[in-house]
Design brief:
signal, alpha+beta, Nitrous oxide reductase accessory protein NosL, 199 residues, N2O_reductase_NosL
């Protein structure tokens, strides 16, 4: 075997693992976010996403051509927590509140992978559905500024608890825990009751 042929074969052998690695990365890379369309309907509320202010979410599930649209970030978390929802999740995206001057009017073209975001949980700001909302930020410093102005705790995706999502309490409602059960009985509704969550 001549030197030229030997060098060609060696180069081909070296390139094969690189090609396989690149193909594997392409297959495992999460799908990109999808632009919100005029007919995007919230998975839980059944209403058009444009009807609600505040940040939104989308979850890309295996076997589906379109994302599962969520009218709030709280709904997005709930989808991942409720046992009856699909579990073949390929990607989760939320709108980055830090890219807009008003958290109730975020730029709905700016998405961040939900598991990479910083969240302000328990702030005085309410979500688009008028309920407690974990506000997502792509930048930690922006999240800290928001928390300094509006209260709340900064958390990563995995640190947000089911109670904070399925049974949230707004700051103005925290005194309800000291009231008789018959007076505060409606505070535990939301996702736990309406979405089939565990009692």
């Amino acid at each position: 075997m001549n030197t030229s042929l030997r060098a060609t074969l060696l180069a081909a052998c070296l390139l094969l693992p690189l090609s396989a690695c690149q193909q594997q990365k392409a297959e495992t890379a999460p799908p990109p976010p999808v632009a919100i369309t005029a007919d995007a309907i919230g998975h839980y509320c059944g209403m058009n996403l444009a009807d609600h202010p505040g940040p939104k979410g989308q979850i890309l599930v295996g076997g589906r051509d379109r994302p599962v649209w969520l009218s709030s970030v709280r709904d997005t978390f709930a989808f991942t927590m409720l046992p009856e929802e699909e579990k073949d999740v390929r990607a989760i995206y939320v709108t980055d509140v830090g890219q807009a001057p008003d958290p109730r009017k975020p730029d709905l073209t700016v998405w961040i992978e939900a598991r990479k975001a910083w969240y302000v949980v328990g702030s005085r700001q309410r979500g688009g559905m008028g309920e407690a909302e974990p506000f997502p930020f792509g930048d930690e410093a922006a999240a800290r500024r928001f928390a300094a102005d509006n209260g709340g705790t900064i958390k990563r995706f995995a640190e947000v608890t089911e109670d904070e999502i399925l049974h949230p309490t707004l700051p103005s409602e925290q005194t309800a825990a000291d009231e008789p059960a018959e007076q505060g009985g409606n505070h535990g509704g939301g996702h736990g009751a309406g979405h089939g969550g565990t009692p």
